[in-house]
Amino acid sequence: METDKNTNSALRQALESRCQGSLSSNFTFRMMEQVHVEALRRRKRKAIAGSVLLITTSLLLIALAVYVLAFRMNIRWSDFMPQVNTSESFSMIGFYGYIAVLVLVLLGLDHLLRAAKRKKEF
Predict the structure, then answer these.
(1) Residue 88 in contact with residue 39, Cβ under 8 Å?
(2) What is the DSSP string of 45-89?
(3) What is the pLDDT of residues 37-76, one digit of tens each?
(4) What DSSP character marks residue 26?
(5) Measured between alpha carbons, how far is 75 from 13 in angstroms, rounded to an integer?
(6) What's the Cα-to-Cα distance from 19 to each of 11, 22, 29, 85, rounded to whole Å?
(7) How far apart are CA 100 and CA 55, in angstroms?
(8) For residues 103 and 43, what is the distance between their CA atoms, to the nearest angstrom?
(9) Distance of alpha carbon 86 from alpha carbon 84, whole angstroms
(10) 3-state DSSP assignment of residue 19
(11) 87 pLDDT band (50/70/90 cuts)?
C-alpha cells in the first residue's frame, strides 16, 4: 500500500514539475504532416517489398522451369525443333535467357514510368 502512495506521489510531483508552456499554434498541423509523411514512407516500403518479392519469385519459377525442362525431363529437343542442332541448344538457352531478362527489364521500366506518371497526376 505504501508503494502505491509513493508511486502516486512521484507521478503527482512529475506532473506538477513539468513545463507549463503552451504548444505552438501550428503544432497539430506539423504533427499531422509528420504522420502523413510516415504513412507515405511505410506505403512505399510495402510496395517496394512486394515488387522485390514478386520479381524474386518470378525469377525462381523461371529458373525452376528451365532446370526441369532442360535437365530433368528426358525430352529429345530434336523431335520438337528438327531444324535446330541439339549441340547448339545451350547457346539458344542463353539467347532465351537474354530475351527473358530483356522482357523483365522492360516491364520494370514500364512500371516505373507509370508510377511516375500517376505521381505527377496527383
Answers:
(1) no
(2) HHHHHHHHHHHHHHHHHHHHHHHIIIIIS---HHHH-TTS-GGGH
(3) 999 999 999 999 999 999 999 999 999 998 888 788 777 7
(4) T
(5) 83
(6) 15, 9, 22, 85
(7) 12
(8) 27
(9) 6
(10) coil
(11) low
DSSP structure class, residue 18: S
Task: Show me where the domains of the chain are located.
Answer: 27-74, 78-122
Judge contact between 84 and 92, C-beta under 8 A.
Answer: yes
Q: Write down the pLDDT at residue 80.
A: 67
Residue type at position 25: S
Q: pTM (2 decimals)?
A: 0.44
Residue written as grid cell 525452376? 64
Q: How many residues does the chain have?
A: 122
